[in-house]
Amino acid sequence: MYCGLPASNTLIAQLFRYMSKKLLAVLMLLVCLLSVAVVQLMPSFQQKAGVTPPVTLANGSVDTSDIEKPCSNENPEWRPAQVIDEVEIEASPACEPDNPYDVAASVKGTNNISMATLMQTRLAQDAVVMGEDIDKDGDPDVIDIKLEVMELNGGSPDGNYLINTFDIAPGIQPGLWVFAPKSQGMGVKSFTTFAANPLLRAPSPTIRVEQGDKVTITLENTHYLPHTIHLHGVDHPWHNSKGDDNDGMEEHPVFPGQNHTYEIQPRHTGTMFYHCHVQTARHMLMGLSGMFVIEENKPNNWVQTFNVGAGQVRHRSVASKDTFTQEYDLFYQSLDKKLTKLVQEYGDPRLIANKMTRDYNMTESFENYFMLNGHSYPYTLRDSMIIAGANENIKLRIANAQRSSIAMHIHGHKATITAYDGVEQAPAQQITRDVFDVAPAQRIDLQLQTLDDGLHSYGQGLWMFHDHVLTGTSSDGMEPGGNMAILAYKSLIDEQGMPKMHEAALSELFNKKYYSKQQSLWDTGEFSHLLGEAGVFEISMVRLALFGLALGLLIGLLVVLILANKTKNKL
């Protein structure tokens, strides 16, 4: 016995008494090293293979819980050509065609359609009001447009979830701001979902008016931050009729809950642009921009005021019908996930404003997501394909709202640039090529012919078109993604408007796990054992023995230190 301690503790007490600080430090270091070794060697029944794996076992069946149908096929009745309230609407074979009732309301005005038609839209009764035919040529010349600012994929104050959701690709929901036609009812699609109603989507709608129309655009700011509308390239006076700002500059913001009306009577036709000019770099990169088109003045020229979501124009102007067989609006945007995340992380407008203006450094920003008409591949296949037949003459209006330039490349075709920034080029200046450089905020018009002559077209097929700046075809680094789409010939799409011969790829890509980087691109199929996940392998018996030895030493050493410390305290 020693000092009343049991004999078994005497040795520990003597060890602790004579233990130097240096020895104690060595023992503590040994404890740390053994802890690291235990964590590193901790076994499981199976584990993922490393960079240079041994012979692996199959991963097992593929989890299909996150795989979507390539086409939802929600409204197949919207695809055929049809007439609604005397408005002729062209066929759209796309998987997700525009709502034809929205098209009819955009052409006739919400004040000139039946209540039955209006109720098939989400448009407010004063969203687009058509007035007097001043020049007596059979179409209205006074148009009143109302726009709101809406947030998509923003954080909800009521819980840890997003509201007014809009997926740009499978599982990808960045925060977005958009101009939207004034709408009626809820911001969500129904009482049973958080998904945004169809009018609330990216991009902001293409707006079409006729040359010489007296147009008022009223911004009803339903958002929590100030905004403006700048009509970039559109002929407009600097003051409106009240002597107020008409240029939408940052010095004259429209604050939350306020309205402001911009007045124009454009004299020059062409493809223009509109965007918010408050904290311009940030607000444009959040999505507040759209295409603005002024059509040539023609008799009986009822133009489609809103092309929601851009894409195919289903009711074309008289001038377009005279020259072209189809017309498409192609609107390119990019997003910085660090910026878009702010509206999901903070619920206080003061915090969002401060984080955006003072903490977020625009000069250090990145473009992580690249979109065509509000979607990234593969969702671009649902509503942004160009679907053509042989020997067509198609008009493409292209606008670049990205922070960076795009280099649009069309496989299998060469198109002709007919206009820059709304200015028609003389025939001698029109250039035919297959890559089209479009600077930020720039617009170009293209004439795309499907004549199979080896120049304009190489023949029928599923021809990709995309940004040839290589990042443009990625979504947060994952390829294929970004602004890729397809110029598809009608014989090569199925009854739902999806491309044939792509079934295997589509089953891989319409999967949330792929874009969240949880699944390999080639995770199924006959080559999955070569190109898919590396698989798993059985734990090594040597590793298991080393784990047991390290764990035993660690436990023993900890017991010795604990008992020695208790013994010291009793002395």
TrEMBL record:
The chain crosses the membrane at residues 544-564. Residues 202-297, 358-470 form the Plastocyanin-like domain. It comes from the Bacteria. It holds the Pfam family Cu-oxidase_3. Keywords: Copper, Membrane, Metal-binding, Oxidoreductase, Transmembrane, Transmembrane helix. GO terms for molecular function: copper ion binding; oxidoreductase activity. SUPFAM superfamilies: Cupredoxins (SSF49503). PANTHER family: FI03373P-RELATED (PTHR11709:SF394), MULTI-COPPER OXIDASE (PTHR11709). This is Multicopper oxidase type 2. It comes from Crenothrix polyspora.
